[in-house]
Amino acid sequence: xxxxxxxxxxxxxxxxxxxxxxxxxxxxxxxxxxxxxxxxxxxxxxxxxxxxxxxxxxxxxxxxxxxxxxxxxxxxxxxxxxxxxxxxxxxxxxxxxxxxxxxxxxxxxxxxxxxxxxxxxxxxxxxxxxxxxxxxxxxxxxxxxxxxxxxxxxxxxxxxxxxxxxxxxxxxxxxxxxxxxxxxxxxxxxxxxxxxxxxxxxxxxxxxxxxxxxxxxxxxxxxxxxxxxxxxxxxxxxxxxxxxxxxxxxxxxxxxxxxxxxxxxxxxxxxx
Length: 272
Hints:
Elements (H helix, E strand, L loop, with lengths): L13 E9 L3 E7 L1 H13 L6 H19 L6 E8 L5 E8 L4 E7 L9 E8 L6 E7 L4 H13 L3 E7 L2 E7 L5 H6 L2 H5 L1 H4 L1 E12 L5 H10 L1 H11 L2 E4 L6 E4 L1 H5 L12
């Protein structure tokens, strides 16, 4: 196979550009999410997980727009969003991450999901040595792009426009002070794809992100030791328990020796 025929190598991480659109006073966040999506699918494969097509598509869009949103915020913030939605299908979604850690993680829940009267979004913003900021907003019966735009209107109290540009490329434009709202409202995906030739733009910064959680048995064990009496019988009878990370769904097999702290062997995720 010639070099011309070889597929383009996917980068190790997703790079998000923060671009100021001069004359429009808008901030453009854009990225090729392919590296992040590759890590996401490798994670699912490693842990024997699988999402149905509808939830998989929604989670990918949510991860993409959430990552862009992180770059619209100061570096030293940690954000988490939890969505309880009944359209297009009944599901819960969780995404979290920070620019400082250069990571984003998320998962979809479809079992034992409470059906809400309206689609809901619960957000949390954490900055070290400050009280967490939380908000709860209702979401329209639409797609992920419309949910994020609703978040910007209600929580950020400014306009935000979301665009899926194809080939795993996404864009988010946010209104800054003095923004040209008519221009922002009129934009199409085609306009955004060609914005560098139609508008005066300046790249302000770039940030990189990986899809990763950082969970390990060592981080889970202190909680299990505190709750040992709640599952002691199961450990004794079965010889192990399986514990899933609530952030990413990774499953770990925990043995009595691990709970007692006498197992020195490397702990690995369960990969059935």
